[in-house]
Amino acid sequence: MALIDKEKFKAAIKEAKERAKPRKFVETVEMAINFRNIDFKKPENRIEVQVTLPKGRGKPVKIGFFADKALAAELKKANIVDRIITKEELLQMDKKAAKKLAKEIDFFLAEPSLMKDIARQIGSVLGPRKKMPRPAPPNLKAIEAMVKALRNTVIVSNKKGKYLPVVHAPIGTVEMSEDDLAENAMAVYNAVLKKIPSEQNIRSIYVKTTMGPSVRVI
């Protein structure tokens, strides 16, 4: 029998939302999965997985695109992405500008021909922030589909700091229904489950709002 199901998530999310104090901003709903009996010092055990949330993130996700002049013009006309960085801009970009860009943008795409320039020019900024661009597909229709998927995507990872036995992931906002949030939580849970030896390696799961108290799911 599985440790958890959607109904357990719904109940815990409902409690977390009820216990959260009113805020002047829309809080994110987050989940944390704690592990046991896994040696995360071993590279093969470390978790990093991209999860597409079936009900979306509940808030805007900004996509940046590194493009040469021709594709940049097409992208601007199609209005597919939030920020276009031309090759000329890239080659003039210093670390300060790169840090500002990384703070503003959630995910990056790039023309494959620019990947080496990106790595050389600002890879030291984007890399540690898990924001190195993904190579873009060859046409606008495919790019649009990829952008749509990324707007609903979260990166679940414990590849930070000392590889602690826990991962955190946003699963939406307090404005979303408990049912939708629970469906997103199950998507994260199932993706993480594929990366560990057994469900028994999960010690506990919690949900919370950004500034609210944690509520134990299992």
Question: How do the helices and strands line up, and which of them pair or pack?
Answer:
Blueprint: H1 6-19, E1 28-35, E2 48-52, E3 63-67, H2 69-78, E4 83-86, H3 87-92, H4 95-104, E5 107-110, H5 115-126, E6 134-135, H6 140-150, E7 153-157, E8 166-173, H7 178-193, E9 202-209, E10 215-216
Parallel strand pairs: 3-4, 3-5, 5-6
Antiparallel strand pairs: 1-8, 1-9, 2-7, 9-10
Helix pairs in contact: 1-7, 4-5
Description:
The structure is a single chain. A hairpin with a 5-residue loop joins strand 9 and strand 10 (215-216). The chain has a four-stranded antiparallel β-sheet with strand order 8-1-9-10, covered by helices on one side. Strands 4-3-5-6 form a four-stranded parallel β-sheet. The protein folds into two domains: 6-58 and 152-216, Ribosomal protein L1/L10, rRNA-binding domain (Ribulose 1,5 Bisphosphate Carboxylase/Oxygenase); 63-150, Ribosomal protein L1/L10, domain II (Rossmann fold, 3-Layer(aba) Sandwich), CATH 3.40.50. The protein has helices spanning 6-19, 69-78, 87-92, 95-104, 115-126, 140-150, 178-193; strands spanning 28-35, 48-52, 63-67, 83-86, 107-110, 134-135, 153-157, 166-173, 202-209, 215-216. The longest helix is centred in the C-terminal third of the chain and has 16 residues, at 178-193. The mean pLDDT is 94. The protein is globular. With 218 residues, the chain is α/β, with parallel strands linked by helices. It contains seven helices and ten strands.
